[in-house]
Amino acid sequence: MRYAFFLLLALAACAEAPVESPPHDPEADRLLASVTGDAWDAAWTTASARPLVFERPGGETLDTLPPNPLPAFLSDEPPFLDAAAREQYETRVLGDTTLAGQPATLVGARFIADSRRTQPIRSVRAAVTASGTLLWIDVQRESESVLFDEDSRLRAGLAVAEGAFVPGFAEVSTRTDVPASDARDLSTSWSLAR
Hints:
The protein is α+β, with helices and mostly antiparallel strands. The chain contains 4 helices and 8 strands; from the N terminus they run αααβαβββββββ. Helix content is 15%, strand content 40%. The protein has an 8-stranded antiparallel beta sheet, with helices on one face.
């Protein structure tokens, strides 16, 4: 019994401090609900039915419609929307803009590290219309594991062609670092030909 005080003191010192949730802007949260891996499925479907031409920097024409890059970076329920992880993200409205001739709101979600698990999505900035159409996105991912480390970034946006949203451009850059080898940098980009 005489050591009970010291035992309680030791247990209190080992307890984790309460984790404060980063600030959330309700309007940003509402608009970020449209920022998912399947947000551009309709634009790719529309583009596949039209005679659109895409090209790489320097003018090289692509033979086919480029793949939708969004699902490779975001799941259908990214961590900034997931109930278990969203409290690790700060969300906010960044301002207003016009993209593809449409008024949109710029919103952001930024991962705030704490004592809980880490998240691969470090930051997202997106332009979303009032009706929930995702027009532009900038996603930064970072993951570390025993097998490899990855840092990647996607910047992409829609365009309007023949009155419909279609893929406008994408820039993807990735750095992978595998133990016992040099880091590799890869990048690709394309855009709708004008």
